[in-house]
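During the reporting period the student researcher (J.K.) took over the structure-prediction task from the postdoctoral fellow and processed the backlog of single-chain submissions. One of the processed entries is reproduced below for the supervisory committee.
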Amino acid sequence: MALLRRFAYLESGTLGRLTIGDWECFTIERPWKDNQPNVSCIPEGVYACQPFSGERFKDVIQIMDVPNRSYILFHVANFPYDIEGCVGVGDRFVSDALEPAVYNSKKTMQRLMEIFNGHEERMTLKITGVRAEV
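J.K. obtained the following structure tokens:
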């Protein structure tokens, strides 16, 4: 199981920590805007994930069955404006309220794919958060 614990819900973006076994990285998402497509992070909950490759994004992970949303992916991204409701990953973060960010996203995404491919075809993802923490 993968666990994404969000720890900063900022006006400009959401930061979290993704843990799979003993490996972890940081995540960047859009701010919470009531699950609106393309502008909001997805709701906290439990989701299935599976490998995905499409025309725009190759070798990424799709988060399945998100209410009222489709094609929610883990992919390379450093800033909230790099994503449209998806989740970017990096090996460190900055929580500047004006522009939160994660770094080394490409390298981190490659490692996430290696770890994911070492597990079952599908993996369970649990997303939790505490909106009061900043």
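The committee noted the following: The longest helix spans residues 105-117.
J.K. will present the remaining backlog at the next meeting.
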